[in-house]
Amino acid sequence: MSQPSPRPHLTPQFCFNQTALRDFLRTSRSTIDDSITQNLNALLTPSAKPFDPASTAVRRLDAPDRSIPRAACDEFRERVLFPSWKVRSDVLDYCAGVATSPDPDDPDSVLRQVEDDRARERVVDERLDPYSGRYFPQEARTESLAMLMRNERAVEKIIRSRTWGLIGERCGLKSDSAEDAFMKWRKTQRDSS
């Protein structure tokens, strides 16, 4: 059985290092969610029924039963899937908090202030050069991080929905949405601690 994603050390530097942040999310998603079919197939007990030579005498057109025992599904969800989702949710929540907090350590803040002051002082005659009035201020790293968090949350929602659909199909679940089931699990984890 796969292992849940390990939790990274959460610091503002981790969040502002968008390469490290994306790599963590990508790796976590690839080991659990992107390979959900393989993870679910690993839950099946091979050769649970002994081979019957008479089975080759008749051609079967229906698909073999690929449903997974409920206990194996529950254990996978409780021990691997939901803990991985929790780690990713914690990282996304933490980094979203960093993105909405003031950033006194922004190395480019002085440079941006100088560029903004220069742009305000510039005299522009758009009749001579219609493009001279253009000014594209450099965005703060918190703004860039906030945009990345919005995108990653959207990706996470899509991935969880797809994963939950496959689990529902293979494990016979017909109830909650992915987010509802995850929130129930989180609540039981908080209540048991």
From TrEMBL:
InterPro entries: MIX23, MIX23_fungal. One of its GO terms (cellular component) is mitochondrial intermembrane space. Belongs to the MIX23 family. Signal peptide: none annotated. This is Caffeine-induced death protein-like protein Cid2. It comes from Lophiostoma macrostomum CBS 122681. PANTHER family: COILED-COIL DOMAIN-CONTAINING PROTEIN 58, PROTEIN MIX23. It holds the Pfam family MIX23.
